[in-house]
Each structure stands twice: as structure tokens, then as C-alpha cells.
Specification:
The chain is an alpha/beta fold and 1186 residues long. The protein contains 28 helices and 49 strands. Among the domains are: 166 residues, Rossmann fold (3-Layer(aba) Sandwich), CATH 3.40.50; 153 residues, P-loop containing nucleotide triphosphate hydrolases (Rossmann fold); 155 residues, no CATH class; 127 residues, Leucine-rich repeat, LRR (right-handed beta-alpha superhelix), CATH 3.80.10; 198 residues, no CATH class.
């Protein structure tokens, strides 16, 4: 396998993208949309607004702009080649591609790429005209033709393959981002010796093969396993759908638990927020998660694995992931890897030449040592034993030192004849100043992985010059900064912890800490304690114990995030009378004591050095009394302190930035002294249910985030600064805002969900500066009667269950609205006609509007993609819905007054008509005709569900059933053709009309009720996997005759026809008996296990249907069909041909999953071969049922 070159840093230029386009064609439509989309992604784009006429010479400024751009995007349109200006631009762009490696991306906007390549068709007409003008300049014409031909041969985007322009623009912008700014760039790509490891691993990974492969990288600590994995990921990540690098699994699993790591992994891979992942059970994964994972080609790196449980939790089985996925694991323990990977790659020490080069780069900033240092360098190599980490640390330590200093360092190393790396690393520690040593030991023992700015605040409170000290540690290669977090190599951390352990200055071992806390002897050496209380037993705490620790600077008592509290762990007071702690060191800068067992703080604790006070879920009743002055305090967290009724005077704590008082359910007031906290940024009063009033907060100009969610008794007018950015008021008792707060200029997020008492909003909600969210959620505001005045580019408006009785005609002025939700508006009967002016509206939800009986015409909703009318009383759907070309979801569930369905848009992908009991007619021809165009590969689920439409006419039912076989055949031929186009894409780049050279995932569902169609109750069709595959669900008790291979029971034998290897796919069929009642929320799937037989042995292959979610309780036999494309298993086809397989055995199994797994009985089964001729293959006859 050829090696992959190292990543390179993108060149520094003035523009990211240069747009070349024909103004008269696209300036006011597609080009302007694309330019806006690029700007939203902060892509610096050059666009020419001068609009000069054809024939003028191209300006030098434009030529310079092309040269100064990282990428050029050429928008070929009908009249592009009729402009000398455009053609000269194109020539310059192609020259820059050749001379400076500029990236070029062509877009064929409503023109055929072959017409651009050959200058034919409408595109060629314009070019012929400009050729006539310059017929005497043959050289110029030749340059134009060459540029057009080369540009048209590049991988690009064909607009004809996209449903609407917004989807095309989004795909182009994402591709540009990927080209300009790779998601992963490793600064270690050029380290000596790295390419040898990368190429060896590439050979083992065999990225092009179809199987799922687990690879282990094994070696000692510091040998470079993590670095190799990082560089490998940076070079191959773009070959996969999604990728994730989970670092420091050994440490993070101990701290946060495997459950948390699993959620992080799946959240990254599936692009779902952690809180939205339904992973409630450790040993059970939801079928939807497995189904989504199994369709993705993913790259996962699990770094520093030290337990087989970690492998099982994070990458349990190969079948979790889609074909061609790769999982890479690094570990020091080969035994752990042997239990979970397919191949283990051992990382040895660097070769002599590479080791010397690495040392020289760190010590001399060049590739070779100076002459006077050659022998000294060899002595360093002898001590470091070719371990990269040791070489980097020693090289940095010896940098800019004289030969005599090198001799001194090397002589000191002689006292460690075993050359243990930990001892070598300690040499760098010995040269630190005392301030730097303290910082290093604190990071090694307590703060590894923590935010650098927060750590600096804590250390500065201890009197340590934190910023300077951390920079010094960074220079010595003792710490690194990753995303502003302090990180440290395991070996270096172990060295630091060993030093602290010997000196007794920092405690983190639970047993040692418990011994210390129960022994009344002077412990002046102790400067910090870090205890996970979930790992200790019950300890009787002496209220005077900390008087023996006068030098304590950091005290951290916490519980692991996922460890439940119980009676067997934590602190017990020595006696019921010991309700007050006697002493705490006034040197404390960090006091984090969860479940603090005392009622107050020691009276002698003046807090002058305290930066963070975190007493969450404690018994504290008051913090301090009198005139104590915690001037350095920045973070105050009292979350869940149920017995806290009041806060002390805060006027002296002028540096406070964060106050967290959530779930302080006895808190009755906030002191007016909070108005003195001019640096306060965050105030959390979540569920302070006894809080009735708030002080005036208007003068707190730094306050950016205010959380008052579930403050149910807080009803007074809210006085907040205009500069507030995040305002959370869910389920609060708030009735109105103060008259002084009528304009919120900087508001970025506002949530007022279920504010049932709210009568009005600020006079003007200005959302022009919204950054992260363009959302206004007023769901459940039952007393809000008047539609608010909203300024700014609001995109999502939720008015579900509000008291607003009607939409005003002014709704049309929310021109940026993309989503409008009005669920369960029981009084809503009609909509204003101005609703049709919302040209950008994509999702319109009117579910549960039980009195809505009429819709206005939909002619102006050009962008509408999803329309939800379920539960309404509509009798008809406007006939102009057929012209809404972008509509892909129409939900009419439980519209029991609906009489019929009009002709639907041809690109509709989901129609839900369940329980539309009055529907008699359904003009479905357009939607079904659209299935014939499935070669365009829309990566969505297709669903046409008519369940319980009991009055549906016989003709409609018969047509749908008859259509099933034809669709399977169309898909078989269409997807096979496109798949061949995709696999012929040698660069793995964009094929015209096929983004990324991949064929997207595809699902289709069609459902209809039984009746006069013989023995049919419903048909459901689905496609799955990377090329379209199809599942069909119905309710006959027999197999259709067009299944040539059939069997009674759950299996049958097959004799394949000659030359059957050219088959395009398999259609499977099974009749399932539902003699066991299932819940309608259950999921189930069917598997066909094919045993192929040959003279050289056999092979077993499983073909599985999609997971099917029950919409209703099934009580009779049901027939299921699904389709697998043969091109998804090319290695199987090669094996079948090589072994001349012509017989086999098919066994079908069905399983339902709900609260329990249930095996279902297969009564009959069948198989059809699609795309080959002969006995057993699909024919042209119509489907019949015996």
C-alpha cells in the first residue's frame, strides 16, 4: 500500500474562496445564496460585484484576487462561456491550480458537465458566439477550450442531482470547509520515524477492504503510541463518515466512568447531543443507536486502554459499526488488546538515526548535533533507550547548555544504572525553581486535564506566579496545553506523584487520606488533599483535624460523577454535638467539599486567599458572619444546599464571577449587596422555589447568564441589564418584565417554556445579535394572549399550547422564519393568508389543532419541507400542494374528517395517513412515480403509511401492491449502475451528482391497510445500508409467486442457476406468526442466514432487515420483504465466483425487542434473485399470489 504524505498547513492568503460566475445567470439567485452560506461559516470569500459587460478585459485586481485565494469555485451556467471575462478568469484559475496548487471546485448549475467539457448544447451556443468575436486570436481560443475541458474533468457538483438549492449550497460549503480546514491536523506529522509506523499501520488497516477491523497499538509508556495514533488519524480521517479520538481512557474511566465515555463517543459519532442520547442502561444499547452506528463507516481511536471492560463498553462488537469501519486502540497491556483486537502492532524504540534526529531537533533546533556534541548526544541516547518522550524531555532540558553542563547532567544520571525513565524525567524537575516545582506537583496530583485559566486562578490565590510557571513547565516539555486544558504525559505525571508521595505534600490515595484524617499528629507537609469519597468507607471526622494541617492550600472532597451516594461511604461527625468545624487553613485557595457535613464555616477561617468555594449538596446553613472579606473569591457553588436560607453580605466579594445556588430550596432571599458584584457573569437560581423577589440587577453590566428556571414563586417584575445574553425562565412564576426592561439588545438565548403566568414580554425582543440560537420558545405560556413584537432574524418560533388565539397578518414580517410550531392550539380554526409570505419556512407544525378546519392556499411557501397537520379537522388539503416541490414530509395522522388526498409533490418522502378513516381516494401516482427517480440517491427515509385507512378504494390498494415488485427491480438496476460509477472514482472525491463518492443511506416505507386485496393488510418498503436496500412489510399468509425459491417453515435449500454471480441483489420474504402479543412500541427485525456450499468448504453470511418499529398491535400473520444490494458485499461475490458456488441453504429468524427479547415463528420464507436471467431470477410478470 502506498504511503500517505504528511499533512501540510494551509498557506496564508487574503481569501479562502474566489467565486467565478456569470452575473446575468446566477448573481441574484444561486451565487448570492452560496456567498451568504460561505459568510455564515466565516469563510472569507472574494466576489466581484462590478458586473462588467462581456468583452471587457479582466482587471489586474481580479487576477491578484485569484492568486491570493486558497480555492476557486467556478459556477458554470448557461451563459458562462459567452463572457470573455469569465473565460479569462477560468484560464487564470487553472494556471494557479497548476503553478501553486490552488484547489478548484466546479459547480455545474443547470448545465450538463459534458456540454462544458465539449462546448456543446446551450452552453456551447454562448461559447460559439465569443469564438466568432475572437476568431483571429486562435491561441486565446485554445487556452479557453483547454481550461474548459480540464475544469469539466474535475470532480464537482451537478445541480441537477439535488432537489433544491439550499441542499446543494450546504453540501458545497461543507465540502469547502473540509478542503480548506481539515478537521484534524497533527503537529507531530514530521517527527522522525513517524512515517515508518504510519505506513506499517496503513498496511494492517487495509482501508479499502469491506470488513470491520480492530487494530491494537502496543508498547511501553512514552514510546509514542498516542502520537502515532494522532498522526494516523490526521492522515486518514477524511476517508470515513465520522471519526472520534477518545484520549486518556484509563484516567477518564476512573474519574467519569465508562458510561460517560460511551455517551461522549456515540454523541460524537452520531452527532447527537449528550443529553439527547437515550443510554439509560449500561449493558443495553438502544436498537436505534445500533442501527445508526451500523450504517456508518467510522474511524475510532481509543487511547490508553487498560481494561477489557473498556473495550466492551466502547467498541463491543464488530457488528456495531458499518462496513469498512476501523477501530484503533492503544495500550501498554498486550493482554488487554489480545482479548479485543484483530491485529496487534508493537511500537519499538526509535532507530538510531531517528532518535538522534529527534534529540537534535529538541536540543539544537536542527536535524543533526554539532560536532562538539556528537559523543554527548550518543550518551543521552544510551540513557533514553530510544524512548521518544525521554528524548524530547532531555533534549528540551539540555537546550542551549554548554558541553560541561551536558557532562554534569549525564554524570548525575549515572547514579541510576537501571536507567528507569521516571528517574531520567526527574532531572528536569530538579532544575525547576521552587515556585515551578509547586505548580508542577499540583498539576501532576490534582489539576491534570483541567482548564488552564481556572488552574491559574487557584494557584495565584496560593501566591504562586501561575502563568509564568506554567509557561516554564511548557518549555520544559513537562506540560502541554490542549484546547486550553493542562495535559501531562503519564510518565511525567507518575514521576511527579512519586515525588509528592515521598514528601507527603499531596494526598490522593483514599487509604492514605483516611489514615491522615484519623491521626492527630502534626502534618505540616500536607499542602493538598484530593479525595474521591466514593472510594472510601465511612470515616468519623474529628472537628479539629484540620488544625494539624496549617499549610493546606487545596482541599478537594468529591464523588465520581456516576457513583451513587450510599451509607457506606463519606464522613460521619464524631458526635452529634460536633456540628461546627473548628479550623481550616487560611492558606486555602480551593475548598471543594461536596456534602460538607457542618452547618457553618469555622469562625477563624477568614478566606482571604480563597478563590473557589464549592460546598454543593452540603448541610451548610450559613457561610460566614461579620466582616469577613473574601476579596479573591471568584467561584461560589452552593448547588443543592437544601438548608441554606440566606446568603451573607457579599459586598466585599467584589471579584465574584460565578454564583450557583440551584436547588437551594430553602433560600428565601438574595441580599441587595449582590448589586456590588460588578464582575458577576453567571447567576444560577434554578429551582429556588421559596424565592419571591430579586434585587434590581440592572447595574450588573457583566451579567451574561441568568437562570431562573422552576422558580415557581418568583412573580415580581424582572429587572435585568439590557446586556443579558442567556436568559432561562422555564416554568418560573414570572408574570411580566419591568417597564425598565423593554429592549434586550444582546440576547442570544431565551427560553420561557411553560411560563404559565407570563402575561407579556418586553416591548421589543431584538434578536439581531443571536449567535448560537435563533430560537424563541414560548411553549406552555397559557396566559400569553398577544402575539409578541419580534425584531431580528428569528428562525424558530414555538407557540405550542399558548393563549394566543390567532396569528396576526403581521406574521409575514418574520421573513427569516424557518420553523413555526403551533401544537395543541385548541382554539385555532384558521390561518391568515399572509402565512404564505414566509418564503423561507421549511417546517410548519399544526399538530393537535383540533378545531382547524381549513388551510389557506400554500402557493407562497416555496421552501416548505415538512407539514404536520395530524389531529386536525381538515376535510381537504389544498390542491396546490402538488406544486410545493420541496415538500418531503406530510403528516396527516388521525385526520378522521379528511375525505381524500390530492395529487402530492413528486419528491414527497414521507406521508403519514394513519387512522384517516374517512379517506376514500388517494392520488398517489406522482409520489410513486418519483420512486423511479431514486437513482439520485436522496439520503432519507421514505414512508407512505395508510394504516387503518379502512375506506381506501380497492383500485388504490391494488396499484400500490402491484407497484412493489417493480420498485425492487428499478432499485436493483439503478443502484447497481450508480454504485459502479461510485467505485470507479479513484480519488474518493466528488463524482458528478454523487457527493463524496459514496452512495448515501436509503430507507423507504410504504404502508396500507387490508381489505379487498387478497390476504394483504399492509405493505411497508425500506432501503438500508450504504447502497439502497428495501424492506417490505405486508400481511398475506402466502409467498408471492414471483419468489422462485420458497419453503414451508423457516428454511429451504437452493440450487442457483448458471452464471448467477451477475445478480444485482437479493429480495427476501418471510411470513411471521404473531401468536405472542407485542406492544406497539416494540421493535423487531428478521435475519436470513445463508449457508453457501462449495467443494472448498462453506461460508455463512447474514442478511438482516432494518429494525422495524411497530405502529400498531399485530395479531395475525404478516409478510415481510427486504432487499440487499449484492454490491455491498463485493468480497462475497469474489469468493462465490472463485469457488463456483451453485447451492446453499437459507434459514430465517425473527426477533422482537421491547422490555424483553421474543423469538417469533417463521411460517414460510422465500428468496428472489434480482437482475439476472434464468430460473430463480426476477421476471417481467406482474406479482401474483397463490
Amino acid at each position: 500500500m502506498s504511503s500517505i504524505s504528511s499533512s501540510t498547513v494551509p498557506p496564508k492568503t487574503n481569501y479562502d474562496v474566489f467565486l467565478s460566475f456569470r452575473g446575468v445567470d446566477t448573481r441574484l439567485n444561486f451565487t448570492s445564496h452560496l456567498y451568504a452560506a460561505l459568510r455564515r461559516k466565516h469563510i472569507t470569500t472574494f466576489i466581484d460585484y462590478t458586473g462588467l459587460e462581456t468583452g471587457e478585459e479582466i482587471s489586474p485586481n481580479l487576477l491578484k484576487a485569484i492568486e491570493e485565494s486558497k480555492m476557486s469555485v467556478i459556477i458554470f451556467s448557461k451563459n458562462y462561456a459567452s463572457s470573455q471575462w469569465c473565460l479569462d478568469e477560468l484560464v487564470k484559475i487553472m494556471e494557479c491550480m497548476k503553478s501553486i496548487g490552488q484547489k478548484v471546485l466546479p459547480i455545474f448549475y443547470r448545465v450538463d458537465p459534458s456540454d462544458v467539457r465539449n462546448q456543446t448544447g446551450n452552453f456551447g451556443d454562448g461559447f460559439r458566439k465569443v469564438k466568432e468575436q475572437f476568431q483571429e486570436d486562435a491561441e486565446k481560443i485554445d487556452r479557453w477550450i483547454t481550461a474548459l475541458t480540464k475544469a469539466a474533468n474535475l470532480s464537482g457538483w451537478d445541480s441537477n442531482n439535488y432537489r433544491y438549492e439550499s441542499e446543494l449550497s450546504e453540501g458545497i460549503v461543507n465540502r469547502i470547509l473540509k478542503k480548506l480546514y481539515p478537521a484534524y491536523y497533527s503537529v507531530c506529522s514530521n517527527l522522525p520515524g513517524i512515517d515508518l509506523h504510519i505506513n506499517n499501520l496503513l498496511s494492517l488497516l487495509s482501508i479499502g477492504s469491506e470488513d470491520v477491523r480492530f487494530i491494537g497499538i502496543w508498547g511501553m509508556g512514552g514510546i509514542g503510541k498516542t502520537t502515532i495514533a494522532e498522526v494516523l488519524l490526521s492522515r486518514i480521517f477524511d476517508k470515513f463518515d465520522d471519526c472520534c479520538f477518545l484520549s486518556n481512557i484509563r484516567e477518564k474511566s476512573e474519574k467519569d466512568g465508562l458510561f460517560h465515555l460511551r455517551k461522549c463517543l456515540f454523541s460524537k459519532l452520531l452527532q447527537i447531543q449528550n443529553e439527547n442520547l437515550n443510554l439509560e442502561m449500561y449493558h443495553v444499547l438502544p436498537t436505534i443507536v445500533l442501527d445508526m452506528l451500523s450504517r456508518k463507516k467510522v474511524l475510532i481511536v481509543l487511547d490508553d486502554v487498560n481494561d477489557s471492560d473498556q473495550l466492551e463498553a466502547l467498541a463491543g462488537h464488530h457488528n456495531w459499526f458499518g462496513p469498512r469501519s476501523r477501530v484503533i486502540m492503544t495500550s501498554r497491556d498486550k493482554e488487554v488488546l489480545d482479548n479485543g483486537v484483530d491485529i496487534t502492532y508493537r511500537v519499538e524504540g526509535l532507530q538510531y538515526r531517528d532518535a538522534l534526529k529527534l534529540l537534535s531537533m529538541k536540543a539544537f533546533k536542527q536535524k543533526h548535533p554539532p560536532k562538539d556534541f556528537i559523543q554527548l548526544s550518543e550518551r543521552v541516547l544510551n540513557y533514553a533507550k530510544a524512548v521518544p518522550l525521554a528524548l524530547k524531555v532531555l533534549g528540551s532540558h539540555l537546550c542551549k547548555r554548554s558541553p560541561k553542563e551536558w557532562e554534569s547532567v549525564l554524570d548525575k544520571l549515572k547514579q541510576f544504572p537501571d536507567s528507569k525513565i521516571q528517574k531520567i524525567l526527574e532531572v528536569s524537575y530538579d532544575t525547576l525553581e521552587q515556585n515551578e516545582k509547586d505548580i508542577f506537583l499540583d498539576v501532576a496530583c490534582f489539576f491534570k486535564g483541567q482548564d488552564k485559566d481556572w488552574v491559574e486562578d487557584i494557584l495565584n490565590g496560593c501566591g504562586l506566579a501561575a502563568s509564568m510557571g506554567i509557561n516554564r513547565l511548557k518549555d520544559k516539555c513537562l506540560v502541554v496545553i490542549v484546547q486550553n486544558n493542562l495535559e501531562m504525559h503519564d510518565l511525567i505525571q507518575e514521576m511527579g506523584q512519586d515525588i509528592a508521595r515521598r514528601r507527603g505534600s499531596r494526598l490522593w490515595n483514599p487509604k492514605n487520606i483516611c489514615d491522615t484524617l484519623t491521626t492527630e499528629t502534626m502534618k505540616e507537609a500536607v499542602e493538598g488533599i484530593f479525595l474521591d469519597m466514593s472510594k472510601m468507607g465511612k470515616v468519623h471526622l474529628n472537628h479539629a483535624i484540620f488544625s494539624w494541617m496549617p499549610n493546606l492550600r487545596s482541599l478537594i472532597f468529591f464523588r465520581s460523577q456516576y457513583c451513587s451516594k450510599n451509607k457506606d461511604t463519606g464522613f460521619m461527625l464524631e458526635s452529634p454535638q460536633s456540628n461546627y468545624l473548628q479550623y481550616l487553613s487560611n492558606k486555602l485557595s480551593l475548598l471543594h467539599w461536596e456534602e460538607y457535613p457542618y452547618k457553618s464555616m469555622p469562625s477563624s477561617f477568614f478566606m482571604e486567599n480563597l478563590v473557589q468555594l464549592d460546598l454543593r449538596e452540603s448541610r451548610i446553613e450559613q457561610l460566614w458572619t461579620g466582616d469577613k472579606c473574601p476579596q479573591q473569591l471568584k467561584y461560589l457553588n452552593l448547588f443543592g444546599c437544601m438548608q441554606l436560607t440566606r446568603l451573607p453580605n457579599l459586598s466585599s466579594a467584589t471579584n465574584l464571577e460565578w454564583i450557583i445556588l440551584g436547588l437551594c430550596m430553602s433560600l428565601i432571599e438574595i441580599p441587595s449587596s449582590i448589586q456590588c458584584l460588578l464582575k458577576l457573569k453567571y447567576l444560577d437560581l434554578y429551582r429556588c422555589e421559596k424565592l419571591r423577589t430579586l434585587p434590581n440587577l440592572i447595574q450588573l453590566k457583566s451579567l451574561a447568564h441568568l437562570r431562573l428556571s422552576y422558580c415557581s414563586n418568583l412573580k415580581t417584575a424582572l429587572e435585568i441589564p439590557r446586556s443579558i445574553q442567556v436568559l432561562e425562565l422555564e416554568r418560573s412564576g414570572l408574570e411580566e418584565f419591568s417597564p425598565n426592561v423593554q429592549v434586550l439588545d444582546d440576547l442570544q438565548y431565551l427560553s420561557m417554556w411553560q411560563c404559565k403566568n407570563l402575561r407579556s414580554l418586553p416591548r421589543c425582543l431584538n434578536l439581531n445579535y443571536v449567535i448560537k440560537q435563533h430560537i424563541l420558545n414560548l411553549t406552555g405560556c397559557l396566559n400569553l394572549k398577544k402575539f409578541p413584537v419580534i425584531l431580528g432574524k428569528i428562525e424558530v418560533l414555538m407557540l405550542n399550547q399558548t393563549g394566543i388565539e390567532e396569528l396576526p397578518s403581521s406574521i409575514q414580517y418574520l421573513s427569516s422564519l424557518v420553523e413555526l410550531e403551533m401544537k395543541n392550539r385548541e382554539r385555532l380554526q384558521s390561518l391568515p393568508s399572509s402565512i404564505c409570505e414566509l418564503k423561507l419556512l421549511q417546517k410548519f407544525v399544526l399538530s393537535g389543532c383540533s378545531k382547524l378546519n381549513k388551510l389557506p392556499p400554500l402557493y407562497g411557501l416555496y421552501s416548505l419541507e415538512e407539514l404536520y397537520l395530524d389531529g386536525s379537522r381538515l376535510k381537504e388539503i389544498p390542491s396546490d400542494i402538488v406544486s410545493r416541490a420541496s415538500l418531503r414530509v406530510l403528516n396527516l395522522k388521525n385526520c378522521d374528517k379528511l375525505q381524500g388526498l390530492p395529487e402530492l409533490p413528486c419528491r414527497l418522502m414521507e406521508l403519514q395517513a394513519v387512522n384517516c378513516t374517512s379517506v376514500k381516494t388517494a392520488e398517489s401516482s406522482s409520489s410513486f412515480a418519483c420512486i423511479g427517480h431514486l437513482r439520485k440517491f436522496w439520503p432519507y427515509k421514505y414512508l407512505f403509511n395508510y394504516c387503518n385507512c379502512i375506506n381506501l378504494s380497492k383500485n388504490v390498494r391494488c396499484k400500490i401492491v402491484e407497484d412493489v415488485r417493480q420498485r425492487i427491480e428499478e432499485i436493483a438496476f439503478g443502484t447497481a449502475l450508480s454504485h459502479r460509477r461510485a467505485i470507479n472514482n479513484s480519488e474518493g472525491d466528488i463524482v458528478i451528482g454523487l457527493p463524496e463518492g459514496e452512495i448515501p443511506e436509503w430507507n423507504i416505507v410504504i404502508g396500507l391497510p387490508g381489505g379487498e386485496i387478497p390476504e394483504w393488510d399492509a405493505v411497508v418498503c425500506l432501503f438500508k445500508n450504504e447502497v439502497p436496500e428495501w424492506d417490505t412489510i405486508g400481511f398475506p399468509s402466502r409467498i408471492p409467486k414471483w419468489f422462485s425459491y420458497q419453503g414451508q417453515g423457516s428454511s429451504f435449500s437452493i440450487l442457483f442457476p448458471p452464471n448467477w454471480f451477475d445478480v444485482l441483489g437479493f429480495t427476501f420474504c418471510a411470513v411471521i406468526e404473531f401468536d405472542i402479543p407485542l406492544n406497539k412500541c416494540d421493535d423487531f427485525f428478521i435475519t436470513c442466514e445463508c449457508h453457501f456450499k462449495s467443494d472448498n468448504g462453506g461460508r455463512k453470511v447474514q442478511f438482516r432487515s432494518s429494525t422495524i418499529h411497530l405502529e400498531a398491535i399485530l395479531q395475525s400473520d404478516h409478510l415481510f420483504l427486504w432487499y440487499n444490494n449484492f454490491h455491498t458485499t463485493l468480497n462475497l461475490r469474489e469468493w462465490l465466483i472463485r469457488n463456483n458456488v451453485n447451492e446453499g441453504l437459507c434459514e430465517f429468524k425473527a426477533e422482537a425487542r421491547g422490555f424483553n427479547k421474543v423469538k417469533l415463528k417463521v411460517n414460510r420464507c422465500g428468496l428472489m434473485l434480482n437482475g439476472c436471467r434464468g430460473n430463480g431470477c426476477v421476471t417481467d410478470s406482474k406479482p401474483k399470489f397463490p
